[in-house]
Amino acid sequence: MVALGATLGGFNRREMSISQKLWQINWGLVLLVSALAGVGFAMLYSAAGGNFEPWALRQIVRFGFGLVAMIAVAVIDIRQWMRWAYVFYALGILLLIGVAVQGHVGGGAQRWLSVGPLQLQPSEVMKIALVLTLARYFHSASVEDTGRIFFLVPPALLVMLPVGLVAKQPDLGTALMLAMGSAAILFMVGVRWWKFALGFVGLCAALPVGWNFLHDYQKARILTFLDPTRDPLGSGYHIIQSKIALGSGALFGKGFLQGTQSHLDFLPEKQTDFIFTMLAEEFGMVGSLTLIALYILLMVYGYAIAFRSTSQFGRLVALGMVTTVFLAVFINMAMVMGMIPAKGVPLPMVSYGGTSLIVTMMGFGLLMNVWVHRDTRIGRGVGEA
């Protein structure tokens, strides 16, 4: 039943009821997200030697909260997300500043804020906030607008601020994701290729200077990437053990709970950064390709939803969220294979981590929100039907 929503959010429009929105949710996408989470639960159970503690049970509980959050995000009017996009961005910046001022230090990096008994990682929140902000900015932009260099200065500053704050933590992996995800959105709205080429040339020119600002362990990661054998018991140990585990899985793997590299503690951070390596060791190439196929199917779902949206804001939000997930998957898998320097980027829905899991699910909630409101037209001004 269609209800008149004239008073909701100040919009003069006809609005679907909550039950209608729930009926519109793409439950196939929900099932796909749940399947990925299920892979994560199984691997965390294995990482603990066949126990739900200390990782799998907590991740299952977090998934339950994340599922509720995902559905809630999906049914909120898409114009409300557009209305509050800049507010979310400002909140994300404040959280990042809070990390810089009094953040919790762990693993040599200052990336978390303590909120009671919880540890919040604001850089994860910024992934969603930045996508919403750029989608809001470019919602009513024309091809002529994106061709003007001064029109691109504000979004460039909006990107540079969180990227700089995240890189200072230091968390170059997430900073790189924010920058690349933003560049993808700029490309989608029609920014000319020569501007990206100019930015790339400027980045290359700044590399010698940037090298001097890297921490010693970051320099070691890059040198280890170029030659893992230069320090096999130090900076090269992790990637060498990861490659051994990947290769030992062969075609069908050693079997569930039978991975030797992981269960004999040769494999570092097996519950987070190197969880894909553990999966490859236990389930082989077949298991690895199955997981990759699930991610590819998820990307196809996401891009199909984006191109079905009638609003530029919805289209950019969907494309931005799918691209963010793709970058996380690519960086994590490429890292454990030794294709890029080691970076602390979790594998979406599979790696252990509360903030990462819930924020990722909220991102999928935004993707479903675009699907639910795919026929909702948004005017050039906020709140216009």
DSSP helix fraction:
55-70%
Q: What oligomeric state do these chains adopt?
A: single chain
The ordered H/E elements are EEHHHHHEEEHHHHHHHHHHH
Largest sheet: 3 strands, antiparallel
Give the rounded overall mean pLDDT.
86
Shape: globular
Which regions have little confidence, pLDDT < 50, spanning 5+ residues?
1-13
Rg, rounded, reads: 21 Å
How much of the residues is beta strand, in percent? under 5%
Write up this protein:
There is one protein chain. With 385 residues, the chain is mostly helical. The chain has one domain (17-372). 65% of the residues lie in helices and 4% in strands. The chain has helices spanning 18-24, 27-47, 56-75, 78-83, 85-102, 122-138, 143-147, 153-167, 172-188, 193-211, 216-226, 237-248, 260-263, 275-308, 312-336, 354-372; strands at 3-4, 14-15, 104-106, 109-115, 118-120. The strands form two sheets. It has a three-stranded antiparallel β-sheet with strand order 3-4-5, with helices on one face. Strand 4 and strand 5 form a beta hairpin. Helix 6 (122-138) runs antiparallel to helix 8 (153-167). The longest helix has 34 residues, at 275-308.
